[in-house]
# Entry
Amino acid sequence: TTRVGVRRNLDGEQVRPLKLCIIGAGGFIGSHLCEKLMWDTHHSVLAVDVYGDKIQHLLSPGKSWSDRIEFYKINIKHDSRLEGLIKLSDLVINLAAICTPADYNTRPLDTIYSNFIDALPVVQYCRVYHKRLIHFSTCEVYGKTIGSFLPADSPLKKDPAYYILKEDESPCIFGPIEKQRWSYACAKQLIERLIYAEGAENDLEFTIVRPFNWIGPRMDFIPGIDGPSESVPRVLACFSNNLMRGEPLKLVDGGQSQRTFVYIKDAIEAVLRMIENPARANGHTFNVGNPHNELTVRELAELMTDVYCKVSGNPRPAVPTIDVTSMEFYGQGYDDSDKRIPDMTIIKKQLEWEPKTPVYDLMESTLTYQHTTYAQAVKKAMSKTLAN
Ligand code: UDP
# Structure
């Protein structure tokens, strides 16, 4: 059901219906954002993407929100309709980007073009037509922590000053150019700086979002099922695929890197607050993550194995994980972020937002989705391969 009643922002002011141009609306984050906007608000969406599969359920005719969403199958690299759509809208949200680590070192040019060059006209149209811009960046702009350069046994490693990532204080620390992993972070950093400068010199109204490992249903793809069989998605989809196939989960370089995971539905709540509270969000860069949900990749593998056995009813595998080198798994030029804990001070203060879902719960709902959506198809694909 759609609630089209009066909406109020955090300051009690009425929020009028907005027309949002969402670029990358058909991706993982875009699909959840569109759902939220259609199901719980009165806002309208011009949904721009090269694929619409993940929002097909919102686009089929006859829904109560059907007059509030339109899909434009557009590649922003070369389509003059983009300018007109931005002109028509009240607010632009740019989610379009290559954002899977397996691409950063193997397709560095596509990565840089997608994250900087292709994002540039969007920023410029927003400046020219005086449109608010919410631009999606990444926690990866922080790169490595200061603490990662300390000796392994240094007591300072335990001091939050050496690892907590703060929007307005932490440096951006990337590896050398040969480590092409950082092509993504560097392109994102430059577009962030450009947007910030447009704000400073030309009064562009902007908000920058730095997602910290948002996860949930519809993230990435399962290789060979709804994505190319030779492609490598992000860790949630890699491990899900391994679990459904009954193969060991691959731990890259020992699985010692640490990540904090936030449930997509919690994170979308933060984005909606940015949309509806421009006075609180403009000019800010926000970490959006869950500092309480930290795991090493090895711990993530253990958790996902436990939860998947529970939701699928499968027995625990005899060999749950195997170690692989990053060279074997990603090829030359891979490097890693060691640890990513977001400081939450700014978003808490500005938007009164806090993440809610503990990591076990978000994994349970996500793996239930993976199992019901893909397990049969994976089984079928495996028996076909065997038969051949
Ligand atoms: N990783 C892993 N096995 C996999 C896929 C990823 O050990 O099958 C590791 C990867 O090296 C990184 C972490 O999991 O340390 C998270 O990777 P992801 O691709 O999700 O993206 P990131 O958080 O680095 O942006």
